[in-house]
């Protein structure tokens, strides 16, 4: 018994400096984080109290939303640009161009929700894009046109939305062939997701694409897929930034994070007078053109 106690004393003597140097500062950081999160929730106490008075479930949803909003603001410096483009009243279809978490929703339920005047978020790429997209942010929609048909049947505008750096904050092992084969063969979304790194997140909302009765689902889906949300908070096509550089009469223009593939890089030469040097994006880069 005495030998056992002596070993414990020795271990305590050895690990006490480690506890003081590493664990205590870590606990202090956690307490600071929780304090800031508490103040973030407390700042909205009146809104939450009103929500709980109207509906208990609505109050619980808004409480969770406030907690996650606080975490995003603290850990990722989360910002949203373009909130004014979401209508104050009435339905709209918000198109999520890059996601990591998705749920299944039948097309009929989506149409019903929009016709009831709700805002609805849809990710056309679904699980495939969530798990197997990479840092170049390709759109893995395939031939999916359901989201466009939902917008047409509901006669609502489409608001494109993109979150910058989400792939840098969270990574997936979906690039490994085994996980891709497992999903394509058995529809098992088994690719592990890891991360939560403290990188800056910015969500950009593009200009609404209004409902047009003469446009079918295939044409609308093609129109949406050609859009790209950029830092000027506008929804633009992939070549408009190049044309802006041309209009400024600049001698040398450098476009970063073009997300052009090899074919799109070749198309630049059709619209630009002069030499163009282009490198398409890959797994570790997003492309650049000069």
Give the C-alpha Rg: 24 Å
Number of separate structural domains: 3
Overall 3D shape: globular
Calculate the terminal CA-CA distance, rounded to whole Å. 75 Å
Strand residue content: 5-15%
Low-confidence stretches: 229-239
Q: Can you give the mean pLDDT?
A: 79
Molecular structure report:
It is a single chain. This protein is an alpha/beta fold and 290 residues long. The chain has 3 domains: 2-75, no CATH class; 79-237, no CATH class; 238-290, no CATH class. 46% of the residues lie in helices and 14% in strands. It has helices spanning 2-42, 45-54, 56-75, 107-115, 126-132, 146-154, 166-169, 177-186, 217-225, 240-247, 262-267; strands spanning 79-81, 92-96, 119-122, 158-164, 170-172, 193-195, 202-205, 227-229, 235-237, 255-256, 278-279, 288-289. It has a 5-stranded mixed beta sheet, covered by helices on one side. It has a 3-stranded antiparallel beta sheet with strand order 10-12-11. 19% of the residues are buried. Residues 229-239 have low confidence and may be disordered.
Quick recap:
The protein has 290 residues and is of the alpha/beta class. Helices cover 46% and strands 14% of the residues. The longest helix is centred in the N-terminal third of the chain and has 41 residues, at 2-42.
List keywords for this structure.
alpha/beta; 290 residues; single chain; 46% helix; 11 helices; 5-stranded mixed sheet; 3-stranded antiparallel sheet
